[in-house]
Amino acid sequence: MEIMTDHGFRKTIKILRALLFISLIGMIGALLFFIGILTYAKILGPPTLAVPQSTLIFADDGTLIGESHNGQKRYWVKLDNISKDLVNATISIEDKNFYEHNGFDYKRIAGAVLADIQAFAKVQGASTITQQYARNLFLKHDKTWTRKLNEAFYAIRLEMNYSKKEILEGYLNTIYYGNGAYGIEAASQYYFGKKASELNLAEASMLAGIPKGPGIYAPTSSLENAKARQKIILQSMVNDGYISKNQAETAAAQPLAIVGKHTTPKVKIAPYFQDAVKNALKNQLNLDDRTIALGGLKVYTTLDLKQQKKAEEQIAQVVNESSEIQVGLVAMDPTNGHVKAMVGGRDYEKSPFNRAVQAIRQPGSTIKPILYYAALEHGFTPSSTMRSEYTTFHFDGGRADYTPHNFNNKYANDEITLAQALAVSDNIFAVKTHLFLGEGTLIETAKKFGLSTKMKDVPSLALGTSGVRVIEMANAYSMFANGGNKVYPTLITRVEDQNGNIIYEKEKTHEKVLDEAKAFVMTHMMTGVFDPKLNGYTRVTGSTIIKDLTRPYAGKSGSTETDSWMIGFAPQLVTAVWVGYDVSKPIEIPEEKSYAKKIWAKFMEAALDGKSVRAFKPPKEGVVGLYVNPANGKLATKDCPIRRLTYYVEGTEPTEYCTEHIGHKNKKNEGKEKKIPWYKRIMPWS
């Protein structure tokens, strides 16, 4: 054996020292590099965990009525609301050492590398739950070194800034389970029709196997593959001590009922209402389209499912199926403006145009209560009289003459009271009142009632010739029903973000915009629309539906050549109904002219069925109720054939007694006792 010379030995030592130095420098560099990565990760702070989630829309009782998504069902549930069996099954098969490692399972990585080398191919994965979560959140699923390095860096950031519970919860809510279901809640509902918290061991072990290959292991793709994968997972859970061998065998043998469909129905509940809700999210809450669609919002609305169903049913029953006429309906709680039902058309699939909130149509005589409220503010009373007769109005300044007409050209050709004029919808009285007040008065009063559409300053405005929206008219009448408090049409009561934080909640407001006494006087006058006692030279406008009503209502109908309306209310509910053609074609079929009233009457009765019958209670002060002769508005005597209780703003009540019937009792009805329906007894009518 050749002995190394001193020179050779010293040379070898130098080489070894150099290699050792280089190695040390490399180790220090690697350590500094690793420290730098950790420092940089810490400086960047926690990565945002927001992921696309379905926005859910709920009715007023908490029932899910719809969701917004782009073909991906995404719900988020807390870890505590996920089946423990599902959590254990996932950890057992995906990442046994999840609670021990810091984002990387080095033993598993080494084993995977060795297996790949032996097979000369990638045959075993080593990604932890943290790494998979990082990939689901921030990266594409391509197999490149850049993606792997980014995945590792995001995994470090997740482990540094979030707890194991938060990471596991996020993973289970973002992993793909096939068939458009992202996250365990969507998967549980799709495959088994139940919540993730309700999964049993058999169901949980099957779902835990799907993420490895949804197209292979989903039970809807191959039940055989799904069962085979389930057995592997159950055995893994036995090995890890989560369950016993007997539990595994029982779960493997348990038959499973696969649902295979998403719970939200394809045909949306109240689709016009839901569209209006999304529009409110965008225009009132200033949320962008992506947040509305995939922000994971929980939107709690005012919709009453029972009333919505009744509205749709009554429209379908009343309107002839072959008719092309359209319907808009809004029902509202007058105390707070909550929209309880909305119909924007007869078939959403054929026409999503929402006639309840988008269409601007002539309101006809339904504008008159607003006009007459203005008249009360200017000294008019229910007993104020004007002459009803064929009239042509002449104007200075070159303005054209104007000749309004009553329905069927019927006139009293005599003095009539304001209360009568409203009940029989006399147009001459309305135009005279409008011109007396000044044509700008009605425009300003309409704004007070929340009408936002531009109105023309013309004599015919008193007859509703300037367009309005159905929802705004329902809101305007709500102010009569609630005693003059300002309300706004409200569709949304609360909105939560994907983390459960409240980002919007409707505030309770109380602002008087109408005089309470005058609002009640006007409301009580509107009950005359359904009161045969106000019959004069023509029938009251609500006479055709009186027989269908079983409780006190106030309201007003309206019609133009192209539009038919009925708006009315009980103390608990206001409903506005519009009927007409989209192209503003004249309504000529007699049956179609009656649709609005029939729909309104049938809906109100159905919606309030089972609810207490309430009278319109006068305010504690500011009004006086007196019996008058409705034919002339004077105080009634015992000789008057008809006496009706009528309310006046205190100080404006009549003082003159009717003398027309003194000594002329009505012999025809003498000695006969007229039977009064029970529901009218709660109203203070004679």
UniProtKB/TrEMBL annotation:
The keyword Glycosyltransferase applies. Residues 62-237 form the Glycosyl transferase family domain. It catalyses: Preferential cleavage: (Ac)2-L-Lys-D-Ala-|-D-Ala. Also transpeptidation of peptidyl-alanyl moieties that are N-acyl substituents of D-alanine; [GlcNAc-(1->4)-Mur2Ac(oyl-L-Ala-gamma-D-Glu-L-Lys-D-Ala-D-Ala)](n)-di-trans,octa-cis-undecaprenyl diphosphate + beta-D-GlcNAc-(1->4)-Mur2Ac(oyl-L-Ala-gamma-D-Glu-L-Lys-D-Ala-D-Ala)-di-trans,octa-cis-undecaprenyl diphosphate = [GlcNAc-(1->4)-Mur2Ac(oyl-L-Ala-gamma-D-Glu-L-Lys-D-Ala-D-Ala)](n+1)-di-trans,octa-cis-undecaprenyl diphosphate + di-trans,octa-cis-undecaprenyl diphosphate + H(+). Its main location: membrane. InterPro entries: Beta-lactam/transpept-like, Glyco_trans_51, Glycosyltr_51/Transpeptidase, Lysozyme-like_dom_sf, PBP_transglycosylase, PCN-bd_Tpept. Keywords: Carboxypeptidase, Cell membrane, Cell shape, Cell wall biogenesis/degradation, Glycosyltransferase, Hydrolase, Membrane, Multifunctional enzyme, Peptidoglycan synthesis, Protease, Transferase, Transmembrane, Transmembrane helix. The keyword Hydrolase applies. It comes from the Bacteria. Coiled coil: none annotated. The chain crosses the membrane at residues 20-41. It is found in: Cell membrane. Residues 329-604 form the Penicillin-binding protein transpeptidase domain. PANTHER family: BINDING PROTEIN TRANSPEPTIDASE, PUTATIVE-RELATED, PENICILLIN-BINDING PROTEIN 1B. This is PBP1A family penicillin-binding protein.
